[in-house]
Amino acid sequence: MDDKQPQLTGKDQWQVFKRLLTYLKPHTKVIALALFLLILTVLGDILGPYLIKTFMDDYLTPRSFPTGPIVGLAVGYIIIQIGNIIVSYFQLMKFQELALKIIQQMRIDVFTKVHKLGMRYFDKVPAGSIVSRVTNDTEAIKDMFVSVLVGFVQSGFLVIGVYIAMFIMNVKLALITILLLPILFLIITTYRKHSSVVYQDLRERLSQLNAKLAESLQGMTMIQAFRQEDRLQDEFNEINDKHWNAGKRNIKLDSLLLRPAIDLVYALAIIIVLSYFGITSMDNIAEVGVIYAFVTYIDRFFEPINQVMQRLSIFQQAIVAASRVFKLLDERDLAPSQKNVENAKIEQGKIEFQNVTFSYDGKKDVLKNISFTAEPGQTVALVGHTGSGKSSIINLLMRFYEFEQGDIKIDGYSVKDFKVEEIREKVGLVLQDPFLFYGDIENNIRLHAKEMSDEEVRAAAEFVQANNFIEKLPNGYNQKVTERGSTFSSGQRQLVAFARTIATNPKVLVLDEATANIDTETEVAIQSSLEKMRAGRTTIAIAHRLSTIQDAELILVLHHGEIVERGTHQQLLNEKGLYHKMYLLQNGVVGDIA
What we know:
By secondary structure, this protein is an alpha/beta fold. The chain contains 20 helices and twelve strands. Helices cover 62% and strands 11% of the residues. Strands 6-9-10-3-11-12 form a six-stranded mixed sheet, sandwiched between helices. A four-stranded antiparallel sheet has the order 2-1-4-5, covered by helices on one side. Strands 7-8 form a two-stranded antiparallel ribbon. The mean pLDDT is 84.
């Protein structure tokens, strides 16, 4: 999926910025303290040049050096400078602490939101793109809170303070320097307008890099097996080149409109100040201290402007990054909602599909008028060719996707009525390719359920005969599990998944070709375990190997999203239909297939 977003208008950027500021609300006391410290540092920056001006005009120029006043000025100046250093340290610490807390909360919000999204969202958005929003984009926002807001506020106070000081010393010259503000405003506006486009492109290219990297890491086995390294390298290089080009455009824009443009206006301001004093000195003697103070204040005025322009780059990146984060936070493609009917409980496990029609994209139906009933304790098997709709039935039963037509009931209640916790606890799922979490085997069975004892964990493993291989491991149940359980065989991972499911004692068991990745010897060994697991539980089983579901009370044959045949194994063989053909094909009797 292309991670391209619409270009942000000035109004959009303002809305994003206002939303970012809402994260400051819980930290008003810290903000007040930090701003107070900030004002103190600005006062120090303003008073320093004024003390030097006083020394130059009142004592140096007239060559009068009374010890007391001069020592007082020197001591005052030193105290101000030392105080500024100390106050700046604490002020910076407070703002840094504030920024880290805000980003911590924002990352929690994003991570929480990701877990509330429906499977439809993950079907269309690359994992790397989501990772980029949780990590890179929030990091860019942190930089804004750390340096930009502090810099903007500090610069604002400093500019106001500088103008107050200049007006006190010379009203006419202060009014003349105000004429420079429209020029500065024009530069800032022009930069903001053009940089928004560049930074948005830059963030999107970075997101695509992360997506391509994540895809490569997840599919490394297939990449190496099918010698796709060169192709992936070319695709990565192409995205990387686009990211480099976007970065180059960013550098060109910064090189033109950041410090060089501001330095040009600064030079113009110095020319104006010196020209003014040069012209007025023909009638009145110019005070050296006033000239020094004005030049210093001009420098103090333009330095924060330069810092603002430099930080404007960070600000623009943060606004673009925040818009991407907020787009994720505002995503409406959520997991199906539940009505949470108070009395809705799964006790017997009777499942009813009533004329269920479903589409992933809203255009093409993958399930069409599906109706069947699984009585408590029965096993219903789903068979059919790839794409026939078997997994879609399970996805709807597990409430991974919302359906609009028909209904699915468990024990008389719609699956929409239950609390999601009730479905997750009472409906056990074992997938064809089980996922193991980083940690150890014991916690992969327990899934960190504190109420489950060690004895229950071991009993679950023994029930599915997973204990046979677990106890042979060097650390037994404490054996380390690497990412996705890559150090274990497919069969071993599947056995752990069986144990994990049975440990919750579900009323309904959902098996998605659960024995497909288990070798024949292991499969034979756990068939008895499967029979014990299914005893007293309603079981919905997807099966590709028909030999594993011959004892099912009901077999549903799906074709293009419809149930075309239903019955027991023997009944379907007698019908000589699609099931019969599949059975002959799997048993190598190709010549008898008409």
